[in-house]
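Figure S7 source data.
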Amino acid sequence: MKKDYVHGYSDRESIRLEDQAECLSEILHHDSNFPQKSLILEAGCGVGAQTKIVAPKNPDSKLISIDISEDSLKKAKETIVSQEIGNVEFQHGNIFDLQFPDEYFDHVFVCFVLEHLPDPLRALSALKRVLKSGGTITLIEGDHGSTYFYPESNFAQKAINALVKLQSGNGGNALIGRQLYPLLVTAGFKNCTVSPRMVYVDSSRPALVSGFTKNTFIAMIEGVREKAVRDSVIDKEEIDKGISDLYLTTQDDGVFCYTFFKGVGYK
Ligand SMILES: C[S@@+](CC[C@H](N)C(=O)[O-])C[C@H]1O[C@@H](n2cnc3c(N)ncnc32)[C@H](O)[C@@H]1O
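Tokens for the predicted S-adenosylmethionine complex:
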């Protein structure tokens, strides 16, 4: 998956992941509290953008945070050390080849990873193996089909669709948020619940205009612009117009909406 990872591992993408986590921390993590003294697996921690939010919220628990990218892990470690967070251990690891015994973790946490995997169900079953009976798995994913905005623009919609197509061509699924419930149930988790987390942005919320609409969402489209044109998923003129129309949603009379999905299931 690393070779084809749609967003890549550039410095710009690391900053985008940080911005995304920072501005969404309340919406996504106000309830990311695990029982005291839990051992939590964070699978696909990337540069630690979620780790640095979830770990301090659970100071009596320990996170083991894994990723297949050594570069991302290095950045994640630097962040955690610089913020003096002491309850995280980073390990190089692959969700599909977990080196932990059965039923090792009290809880599992996975954010923005399933959308990039060709076989999310197999990932869930690998994660389920290392989860204790009675433990929970928490999944957070977006769904680009949940995007709507003002002013409306067919070009902006086409630019978003180009990313969806590109991600699907790489074996991922940018519309996976709506599938969290069926995925959890099919993977055999019990008492599954999913809560949609809508991000509503207008100019009365300047932190979200810059942190979410510009630096998370539009930055994500800009980040795949070259590849989308190179792979003939969309014309250069169309995606450029789409991106400039997306910027109109960040102006004084603009509105941007997106929904994330947070799912929890019990083993
Ligand atoms: C979009 S990033 C999300 C990172 C982080 N969870 C966040 O929300 O900021 C997806 C991450 O999943 C990692 N990843 C993808 N496939 C993986 C696998 N099979 N095992 C472990 N990590 C994986 C990638 O290397 C990347 O760092």
